[in-house]
Design a protein that fits this description.
CATH topology of the largest domain: pyruvate-formate lyase- activating enzyme
Radius of gyration: 21 Å
Strand content: 15-25%
Distance between the termini: 46 Å
CATH architecture of the largest domain: Alpha-Beta Horseshoe
Number of strands: 19
Number of helices: 12
Strand order of the largest sheet: 6-9-10-11-12-13
Helix content: 25-40%
Number of domains: 3
Structural class: alpha/beta
Length: 401
């Protein structure tokens, strides 16, 4: 059977799709490069927020007009009564569905088929045992299930041997790693850093309360670590953070940022913030914008609050959509201004770059897809590291050598 896989959502979904693809190929199936060539389309969905759910439904409607479609991933687990198979299922589809369910729950399952980019996401755990009041992920993905250090290091070593020049550690929340098994994230990082080769190691999805002195010191000691920490703080108001059930509140955020600056003084911090959470006052919001403008972070993604059924925030007194939209635009403007200021500060610097594709590279300050790129000569080969001087900036912050 010829199968086309289309992936929506976060890097964790990308890993799942790669494992589904590898499993299908090992079973003798072929992968289609276009949906029009397929006997079956697999749509790997996101359902973290209602907008993602609606996007998945729209893609399902569109793609199912081309070929029979099997919907997998988060949406079928959030909406248990949703129709997963649209159209006439080809023989063997039931086995594919069962394999996708096993891969969804067990991050060690599946034979991984990689794409051609020089970076790879490496899932270190599945699920989440935190209970942020705005989030439905624990109800979709289940409680924390950490992989073993041995399994992760083995996979990372294989990725480096296969030519991957950047290993990006992902989970629903990476600092929870090992809390269910007795292992520690520090030990995992040290073991990964011992892998031989020239590569970057990048840590994503760090909860501020999980940034301990021990973890920060370990990160500061690593030879392969990219100068970058992805740490979603969600807000800077202690009152709002407490309402969000963000462990440690404002104190945890301040402590985490202080530890990063002490042990990783050259690192960029990328964060995500949410505006318009129930009960957020104008004063709370102004403090958030002031924090962005002050340069606490170097990369900021802004999201409006979405009221998600099944979350505890669903039953809280909501702000008006107009208020949320206005605050979103104001915070977004502050983030854009910050990015322009930070990126202009990189012009004239000699930097190490990783070439992702002909003509495009990234600095160590930038993760794939979500941050900025650097325009480089097309003669540079994808997967190569190079040293180059940044000569200019274009658009909203992309750089030029």
């Amino acid at each position: 059977m010829k199968i086309f896989i289309f992936t929506l959502g976060c890097p964790k979904n990308i890993v799942d799709s790669e494992r589904i693809a590898g499993t299908l190929v090992s079973w003798g199936h072929d992968l289609a490069s276009r949906p029009e060539e397929a006997d079956l389309i697999i749509l790997n969905t996101c359902a973290f927020i209602s907008e993602a759910e609606e996007e998945a439904r729209q893609y399902a409607e569109k793609l199912s007009k081309i070929a029979p479609l099997l919907m997998v991933g988060c949406l079928p687990y959030r909406r248990r009564k949703i129709q997963q198979m649209i159209g006439n299922a080809p023989p063997g589809t039931e086995g594919i569905l069962m394999a996708s369910r096993i891969i969804f729950w067990n991050p060690d399952e599946g034979t991984r088929l990689l794409d051609g980019y020089p970076y790879a996401y490496l899932k270190i755990a599945e699920g989440c045992s935190r209970r942020c009041s705005f989030c439905v992920i624990p109800w979709i993905r289940g409680r924390l299930r950490s992989r073993t250090t041995e399994a992760i290091v083995e996979e990372a070593g294989a990725l480096v041997e296969l030519g991957k020049r950047e290993i990006i550690l992902v989970a629903q929340e990476t600092t929870q790693f090992g809390r269910d098994t007795g292992e520690k994230l520090e030990g995992l990082l040290i073991a990964l850093d011992r892998i031989k080769g020239d590569f970057w190691l990048r840590l994503m999805y760090v909860h501020p309360s999980g940034m301990t002195r021990s973890l920060a010191a370990t990160l500061g000691s690593l030879d392969h670590l990219a100068p970058y920490i992805h740490m979603p703080v969600q807000h800077l108001s202690d009152r709002v953070l407490r309402a969000m059930d963000r462990a440690g509140g404002e104190r945890a955020v301040k402590k985490a940022l202080s530890l990063v600056r002490r042990y990783l003084p050259k690192a960029f911090v990328r964060t995500e913030i949410m505006v318009g959470f129930p009960g957020e006052t104008r004063e709370d919001f102004r403090a958030l914008v002031k924090g962005i403008e002050s340069g606490l972070f170097q990369r900021v993604a802004v999201f409006p609050f979405y009221r998600e059924q099944g979350s505890r925030a669903w039953g809280m007194k909501q702000l008006g959509r107009g208020t949320i939209s206005g605050r979103y635009e104001e915070a977004l403007d502050a983030a854009r201004a910050l990015h322009l200021r930070v990126q202009k500060g990189l012009v004239g610097r000699d930097m190490r770059l990783l070439v992702d594709e002909p003509g495009l590279a990234r600095t160590g300050f930038d993760a794939p897809d979500v941050d900025f790129s650097v325009r480089v000569p097309e003669k540079l080969a994808p997967g190569d590291f190079c040293e180059a001087r940044i000569t200019g900036m274009e658009g909203e912050g992309d750089l030029v050598v």
